[in-house]
Amino acid sequence: MRGAMIHAPGDVRFETLDDPKILKPTDAIIRTAVTCVCGSDLWPYRGAEPIGDPHPMGHEYVGFVEEVGAEVTAIRPGQFVVGSFATSDNTCPNCLNGFPSNCLHREFMSTCQAEYVRIPNAQGTLVATDGVPDEKFWPGLLAVSDVLGTGWWAAEAAEVRPGSTAVVVGDGAVGLCAVIAAKEMGAERIIAMSRHSSRQKLARAFGATDIVTERGEEGVALVEEMTGGIGADSVLECVGTAEAMRQALHSARPGGSVGFVGVPHDVAVDGQELFFSHVGLRGGPAPVRRYLPDLIDRVLSGRIDPGKVFDLTLPLEQVAEGYQAMDERRAVKALLKP
Ligand SMILES: [Zn+2]
User: Fold this and answer.
1) In this protein, which residues make up the domain named Enoyl reductase (ER) (predicted)?
2) CB of 283 within 8 A of CB of 261?
């Protein structure tokens, strides 16, 4: 089969790779329907994370089950399935407590920008749809498997409640999906912090009521002004930089909450400041598997369309162009079709 390999910063190649095989009785092999490039794939692409030896890339997928291991009984070949970037058995204490992305048997996906993918913990991870969904839903379901699930977790962790005010820091695909989540959870006012007009437009289409283009303390001051001088009930941090986290913590009101889902890079939180702020803080890899049945329903019923975050569609063999377009901010998120 063929798939993406990263060799060095800025150097992603589409190559012939070994076909994935069932390695454990809990595995499944899927044929990729659509996959994509994630904002977090840009960290190694930009040299902000070490690459080491050339390795495959990608952790977002929806596809058709080709083959299952002996212990996989709930999923059958031919089914269309949605999964998560973090695999889980769905039976261990952490899974039962609602945190499948911290499953005791967790394996992170990392080979999905390819024609075929091995899914560990297939029985616990994969959710089959009722029949094969119309192709127009595939981008939305692909978004569910990572960016929407992650935005959903940002909203849950930030304790978005009906009638509340939510601020979303970050206008990448996760931030835009976090706007969808805040809206679905009933936030009355959703302030999206974004500098890019095309992204602002999408944020508004997803439910943002206000846009703040200023960053840093200027942005914080504006949020404060818009919230009666106290800050927002919920802040959804969807970037992962020190500046974004500072902006998020300073935008929350005393007693408010910050949900942080951007993978932190050089982020440090000041204990004294956090102590005196009365702000709640929670983050981590999103428990996407817990949300899958609900989010799949919301997409297939047409209630939400997170697939709109894909503003570039390419054949899988042009995966390198997908990285480049996202790196140069010519695209929010690139969809790849085998
Ligand atoms: Zn588990």
Assistant:
1) 7-336
2) yes
Side-chain half-sphere CA neighbours of 34 within 13 A: 24
Residues 6+ apart with CB under 8 A from 142: 34, 35, 36, 60, 61, 62, 307, 310, 335
Span from the CA of 124 to the centroid of ligand 1 (angstroms): 8
For the chain, which domains are there? 2-147+287-337 (3.90.180.10), 150-283 (3.40.50.720)
- Positive or negative: CA dihedral 122, 127, 130, 131: negative
- C-alpha 233: how far from chain center: 23
CB 262 within 8 A of CB 237: yes
From residue 26, give the alpha-carbon distance in Å to each of 22, 67, 73, 86, 250.
8, 11, 9, 15, 45
Question: 173-184 and 149-157 helices cross at what angle (nearest 10)?
Answer: 60
65, HSE (Cβ side, Cα atoms, 13 Å):
28
Strand-pair partners of 260: 237, 283
Residues less than 5 Å from ion ligand 1, measured at CB = 88-89, 92, 95, 103
- Per-residue model confidence as pLDDT tens digits over 210-261: 999 999 999 999 999 999 999 999 999 999 999 999 999 999 999 999 999 9
What pTM was estimated for this model as a whole? 0.96
**CA 101 to ligand 1 center in whole angstroms:** 8
